[in-house]
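call fold(seq) -> tokens
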Amino acid sequence: MRIVSATRAHVPAIAALMAASPLLRRYEVTARGARASLSEALRADDVVLVALDGHAVVGLAWSITTRALDRAAYLRLLLVGEGLQSRGIGAALLAETERAARTAGCRHAVLLVTATNRRARAFYAGHGYRLVAHLPGFVRPGIAESLYMKSWPAPRRRPK
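ret:
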């Protein structure tokens, strides 16, 4: 498996992966909507990474860096293909996303997790994220989200 920056050529496979996700179906994600969102993300220079097994897309991480929230990166989506979880794909994508965020000068990473998704919540807690708040109905009515955050020390500045 290797992790690379997504290109326009990856968009159809990523969109299919998103549309096949039972979790994302709750959010009414379709392949067509995913293609449109991903194309916009690539135009906006969001960080979109894909995990490839050969040429097959088996996972993705999508983050947005911002100066808001004291220079935070928002992990919009971390998704591993059905039946491929617990093989290190998500952990590798998360590590690369965090590396890209820190390289971009971000001091924090924030993300939302469906509150009922215990497996994802345990995954993020195990990678140093802490629960900040519960946000009922924040993204979709009737679905509660949990906000998680991870901070890194500010980069040291070398004395002049």
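The CA atoms of residues 80 and 86 lie 9 Å apart.
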